[in-house]
TrEMBL record:
InterPro entries in the cross-refs: Lipid/polyisoprenoid-bd_YceI, TTHA0802/YceI-like_sf
Gene3D superfamilies reported for this sequence: Lipid/polyisoprenoid-binding, YceI-like
Highest taxon of source: Bacteria
Pfam families (UniProt xref): YceI
Lipid/polyisoprenoid-binding YceI-like domain ranges (all copies): 10-179
Family: Belongs to the UPF0312 family.
Organism per entry: Ancrocorticia populi
Stated name of the protein: Polyisoprenoid-binding protein
Length: 181
């Protein structure tokens, strides 16, 4: 059981130990994975009254990294994220529910390309610990699937064998390490 006093407080997301990633099916046969390497975020958690908790994250869209520079450059264009017009995407929670001792559902507004849709992400608590530098850290892992078309990310190409080049479904994969203020 986690000490509720250790969970309650203000937190800053540690970008060096956090991954904001995604995966999407490519050519109907495999998944391409990537991350966003530049972001910032904060949270307030209230272990006694989880509904008082909230989180905000801002992500620089140009920081996309799929380990293929040509693909990353294409995803930065108007075909996908249009990073010159929309330099950030964001998430702001609207509701936090404790599902069980180690799982919380965070519902909120995800904004991509000025389109905002409500999503929910179930996060599992990895734990709370003191690091060697005296920081209290908290870890969470969660994922959810969105439809990129809902956010105006519509580029695609038909394949000769049927299907399309890029799936509409994108799985968001998030591993957070946060430091208590």
């Amino acid at each position: 059981m986690v000490d509720t006093a250790a969970l309650t407080g203000n937190w800053t997301i540690d970008p060096a130990h956090t991954t904001i990633g995604f995966s999407a099916r490519h050519a109907m046969v495999t998944k391409v994975r990537g991350t966003f390497d530049e972001f910032e975020g904060s949270a307030y958690t209230d272990a006694e009254t989880p509904g008082n908790s909230h989180v905000e994250v801002s992500i620089k869209t140009a920081s996309i990294n799929t380990n293929n520079e040509a693909r990353d450059q294409h995803v930065r264009t108007g075909d996908f994220l249009d990073v010159d017009t929309y330099p950030t995407m964001s998430f702001k929670s609207t509701k936090v529910e404790q599902l069980d001792e180690e799982t919380a559902r965070i519902t909120g507004d995800l904004t991509i390309k000025e389109t905002t849709k409500e999503i929910s992400i179930d996060f599992e608590l990895g734990g709370v610990a003191q690091d060697p530098f005296g920081n209290t850290r908290m870890g969470w892992e969660g994922s959810t699937t969105i439809n990129r078309q809902d956010y105006g990310v519509t580029f695609n190409a038909a394949l000769e064998t049927g299907g399309v080049l890029v799936s509409d479904k994108v799985t968001l994969e998030i591993e957070i390490s946060a430091i208590k203020a």
